[in-house]
Amino acid sequence: SSIAAKVNGYASPRPIVAKRHSYRTGTLRFFGVRFADVTDFSKCLFLPSDCDGLLVYALPTSTEDFMDLQRLAESASAAQPDTVIALPREIDNLRESIRHLELLHWVGANTPELQSDSVARRELGTRILATEARVSSEVQKLFHPVGLASLTTTWYYRGQGRQFSNARSMANLLSDVCDEVYSGAPVIRNELINRRILSSAAAAARRNLLQAMVEKGGLPRLGFAGTPPEVSIYSSVLEKTGIHRPVGDGMGFAKPFAADSVAAAWDAMERFHASSELERKSVFALFDELQRPPFGIKMGVLPILFTALLQAHDAEVAVYEDGIFVPEITPDLLERLIRSSEKFEVRRYRSEGVRREVFDQMAAVLGSPSDTGVNLVELMRPLYRFFNRLPPYTRQTKRISATAIAVRDAAFSAREPDHLLFTALPMACGVHPFDAHPDLPTVGTFFRAWKGALLELQKAYDDLLTDLQGLLYQSLSVSGTRARQLIQERANAIISYCVDARLRAFILHLSDDGLENAQWIESVATMVVGKVPRAWTDNDKAQYELKVGDLIRSYRHIALLVAERNRQQSLNAPAGDIIRIGVADLHSGDLEEVVSVSPSDRIRLAELMLSVESALNAGRGGPDRSLVLAALASVARTYLNRTPEPKASHERPAFAEVFHG
Question: Cys-Cys link to 563, which of 353, 594, 616, 658 (CB 3.0-4.6 A)?
Answer without folding.
Answer: 658
